[in-house]
Amino acid sequence: MNNLIHLRQASKTFGQGATTHNVLKGIDLSIDAGEAVAIVGPSGGGKSTLLSILGLLDKTSGGEYQLKGQNVNALTRRQTSILRNRHIGWVFQNFSLIGSLSALENVALPLRYNPSIPPSDYARLSKQVLEQVGLADKLHLRPDALSGGQQQRVAVARALVNQPALLLADEPTGNLDSHAGEAVMQLLLECHQRGTTLLMVTHDNGLAKRCQRQIFLKDGRIFDAAD
Amino acid sequence: MFNLTLMWKQWQQHLGKALWLTCGFALCCALFALCMQFGSILFQPTPVWVSQSHQYFTLARVQQDGRLAGINRQALLAAEQMDNIAQAGYLFPRPAQLMLPDGTEHKFNLVYFSPGLPDLLGLPLSGDHEKGVYISEAMANLHFASAEAAIGQRLSHPRLAHGLVIQGILPASVNQLGPWQNDVFLSGEYMHMLAPFTNEPMLSRFLLAVPGYYGILVANPKAQLKLSAEALTERLSAMDLSVQGMRMDTAGSKLLVLPGIQLQPEKFTHLYRLWLLAIVLLLGLAVLLVANTTALFSHQAMTEMENNRIRLVLGADMLHLLRPQWLMAAIMLTLMASIAWLLLKLGLAALHQLQELAQYLQTSDLSTSSGYFVIAILVMAILLGCCMHIPLWQMLKTTLFNRQMTKAASRGQLMVGQAMLCLQLCLATGIVSIVFAVAQDRWRFEQQSNLPPDLIQQSVAQRPRSVLIQPLLSGQYPGLAKGDLALSDRAFDQPISLMIEDPRFSKAVEVGVLRVSPSYFALLSLSGDRPPPDWQQGVIVNQAAAALLQDAGFEKIKGSRLDIGFEGKQNIIGQAANAPHTGRYNAPMPMLYLPLKGADNERHTELHFYFASSPADSLEQALETWLQSAMPGARITHKRPITDVVAAQDRLANQLLGGAALIALLLLGVVVLNLYYQLKAKFSLQRLDFGIQLAVGAPLFVLYWQNVRGNLISLLVAIGLAALALNWLSIDGLTFSVMQTLASGLFLGIVISLVTWLPFIPLQRTTLASLLKQH
């Protein structure tokens, strides 16, 4: 198996001086392409911080992070944006859809930031992926006209539209009822089955167990699941 | 297309304010272009009639009221001898009585020039300057059949054996030299005809000592040291410039060298203050607009913050985020440019109406300059660009992953915000005070017009010729009884403006002068003294002029003598009520009424007849018959009720008040909108805080007071600043009082209190649970 993610002695600090707070303390982590990994642990343990670093929303304060063999700490803001656009799909707990755009427009957004995709393909590709998540009849509705579960499915569709290698989900079912949550989880697992690497932060042990591997994060350190 | 859609979606909530600000920027842009254009003419070192380029200086004496007076020739000779002065010349204005070829004598404005001056200044005069004189085209048309017919004719003077041969017609640019109307332009060689002596050396000494020369000095271009007007003034003031045996009174004035050619520094000072006022207004407006636009874009960026964060997460870069903003800015700029162009055209048209400016600049070259307009647009584009980019830039500096999105403003930001609010309120207080002052003056000066509504003013124009009016005034003409008709030499609303210089006045005062027939006062129903039926001497003053004389220390008005310049000293024979010559809403113009003698040796180009419209048929018929016989070829230029003439003046006053109110409304609108948007943005950020305070029992009024308190403190500071600024600016023709500023402050205080309350209205309708919900 080849390493998609390789983190060595990664640390993250917030604040300065007396208010310094070490959120991640020397994390070593490797994730292979095609894996499904769940990050679990108590609140304040650093789960979301770790995910944001892995998803290129933030940088480590120390240590090394390699994504697809590339040292991301050395990348410029623009290069990071490109890498995120082409290779990472994000699903957030609060859906993070743009309220003024329709479901189709929301899904098409990552395509617009990818110059290799001709504008004539935006609608076709977006529709395709929205059909995959079961929203073929909701293309032109705005987020406020959709249920929570439907909004999260739009978010999943948007995460998948650029066919990323890595799909990151931060509490993807946290704001959904069990039925909608299950549907979203099913979608994420289907993506993984098609070869996408899935990395998910969750509080739900049931969901975590459906992943191949669980990482337990507490006080900024990784513990074995057995611990 | 997507960017356009996105732009529309992002901005549809703010379109009203964006449009409002676009109009503000357009006004700012037009004002900026206008100031640049006005300034470029105002600060030209040489007037338009000078076509040479040298480093010039003007040598003259300055009087206490800022106007220039001439120096003696001795001073000019001394200046000419100074190091670094390459050449010197002079202009010497002096009216003189000259006889025309037809034998009639007239007083003309003569301007003498030193022999080399036309070349020194590049004046376009044809022929040999020493062999004749040049007359203005207006004079040629008035007194000769045509300009061509005037050339070669002679003007006679008792002291000149051969008279003055008309050598050529002056180009229009030389018709007015500084404050002097130039009828006859002639070489200084003819100046001996001015002197009261004919024998040498008295004549030479007199011409050396008479203080009437306006020196024009040219700096030596090869000089090592750059000359300054101050240094020249200092050096010349230290010299003894008196002429032995000739003592001419120059008390109350001092020698002065001015940079460039400046013959009307007092007008320059006045126009410079006007220009400065426009610049202050421009800067104030620009600050207001920048503050408002930054607030708008900040508010917009804040509203879009989460959406932009999502877009960045999805791979957008800064360009992607900026494109909709650029599109909005481009639309705003296009709209602004169109409105600004229109405003600039209107502004230039208004400047053309400013008689004082046109007279000073002596140019009609106030057409729209595309160069200045482009510069103004570019500056506005840069300002708009900065307002747009700064908030977005601030937002982009934050990381994409941040649990605590800091929305509270820093201490520095709060202080800048408060200072901006203070500045805006200061401007608003100032402009509202100006509107109050205009309105108060209008109310103070408003006078009831007793002019008979059926009184008609009929104006007649003809080529200059004498008209025997006497039979018409004395009731000898059939069909026209004595007192049926009144006459004046100028229209009711266009009296001649004259500066009266009397030692009792601290400075020269401006009065209106009308020559009228004795029946003028009765027909216009003006109460007060009436002139005798055979009025030939003496002057009647109106109440405004009488008040002026009393202020100047005249113990009694009637019977006093007044020096009226070209009319010599006149006895005041009576006092009449103020007539609304300048309309009913302006300060009444001090007026001097002189007799329209109606002798046949007086030439008239226009006459104005006043008569009641009813029963007027027979009267009009008789007048028409008289006009045909006494003024053949004359044409009626106007015939309208006198009340219409006054109404036209009132319209101007209304437009002034309306214009001031409009500007005030615009500025007030910008300030109020800005305050409202600031509060709205603050409320959306502090929604939870308000919810918590209300949940723990805080009354709504306490929250309101927390917000309004800072604004009211800013207003108090602004009132103080505005009072100081108005006192410093001291706008001509307007009287400011502390009460007006306080009233403006009170008015603004009420407006601010109401605006601050507006965001609380939806708060009252929201449930506490909803307020406490985290967004």
| Strand composition percent of chain A | 25-35%
Which secondary-structure class do the elements of chain A indicate?
alpha/beta
- Strand content of chain B is 15-25%
Number of helices of chain A: 7
Largest interface by Cβ-Cβ < 8 Å: A-B, 27 and 18 residues
What string gives the helices and strands of chain A in order? EEEHEEHEHHHEHEHEE
Low-confidence stretches of chain B: none
Strand order within the widest sheet of chain A? 6-7-8-3-9-10
Shape of chain A: globular
Most strands sheet of chain A: 6 strands, mixed
State the distance separating the first and last CA atoms of chain A.
26 Å
Which class best fits the helix and strand makeup of chain B? alpha+beta
> Average pLDDT of chain B, to the nearest integer?
79
Oligomer: heterodimer
Query: Which stretches of chain A of 5+ consecutive residues score pLDDT under 50?
Result: none
Query: Count the helices of chain B. How many?
Result: 24
**Terminal Cα span of chain B:** 31 Å
* Main pleated sheet of chain B: 10 strands, mixed
Helical content of chain A, roughly? 25-40%
Number of strands of chain B: 22
The tally of strands of chain A reads 10
